[in-house]
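FIELD: query
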Amino acid sequence: MSKTSPKNLDKALNELKNSEKEITRLVVNLIRFKSENPPVEDHDIQLFIRDFLRQAGLGCELHDPGDKAWALTSSFGDGNDGFIFYGHADVVPAGDPSRWIHPPFSGEVVGDRIHGRGASDMKAGLAAELFAYRLLYQNEVELPGRVEFVSVLDEENWHRTPIGWNTSDWLLTTGKLRGKACVMGEQSGIKKVCLGERGDYWVRLHSNAKPRHGSTPVYEDNACVKLFRVLESIHTTITKLRAEPPEDIRGIVYASPKHIAEDLGEAASITHDQLLEMLVKPTMNLGVVRGGTMINIVPDACEAEVAFCVPIGMRRESLHAAVSRMVEESGSVTLELLGESQSDPSYTKPDSRIAQTLKEEAADVLGVAPEFYVTQGTSDANVFRKHGVDTCFYGPGDFANTHGYNEFVSISAVTRIAQIYLKTAARYFA
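FIELD: result
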């Protein structure tokens, strides 16, 4: 890969290296927006991002796909085979504020750490992308292509748009984003680059029964019992399924358990073999159960919301067929797809231009090349890949402290990854 330096790239990098305080302030300002999802209450954080970019002379567009989850896009340069910086500005709810050492929306800085909800997922990555994108434009770095920036408000909980669920899908379908390669600032940590992830398949199961006094029940004719037995049958069935990852990603899949164990941190009581099984077999989480009204009444209805993850090498439709078959055979349970979370697993080829450019530029900044891996979770990367956009996620946050209390990010990680973003975007076109 060519190491020719585009005109003015060194100028932009020098400015970035002297901007730690400004980048830190940007992360803090983003954390201070209470952009929890659900629910999305407003789009003030998008207005802040718009003003940040406008001050540099960059044009921005705000898009309203509905339900208050406004999106922001910005671009400069020409062409369609472009490079996209992706960020999401929404965060999961902060939970009980008394369980935070520092208030969740304070952006408190202590030593090398910035604390607060979204610090890791992914306001630090968002700030680093914003800074790199702005410096490319302000310093007139010579790029023979189009660079785009996007911020969405519904990554944590997809919202409905005029064409279905998920703002990113709507932006790509309607041509408001047109790039062919994307870097997402999601929480991978700076030592590894995520190339793939499992898919989501979410359903609601429902059963009915005749209500009666609890002292004279027929145990089997109970809505909850019917549903639980079907759930157990489904779990037994899907644990026998196994996917074989495609050859070009297989080695990375089989090497990924060690990286996932690092991500899970203290929660990693699962063995290497169990983690590998999780990557090559579908998994099932019984997340919500509702049934019954009183202990001495046989419940007349019960429902469960179940989240399945689909491994790389398996299609969501084949998992749906297996689950549907078990439901139909029961004769007592119905199935409803939850449209707000349905996606196929996906991956970006390790020899793709974006993956290789990102790895090379990270090695140049860090002194050691990050390793490729696939994650057990899902993100909007599946949506981008569905639209033919080669996508990697690589951000300064660490998965181990994501979505929990006392979330934080390292300032030094943010500044180094901003350099990597800037260099990757500039050299992607080389």
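FIELD: remark
The first helix runs from residue 9 to 17.
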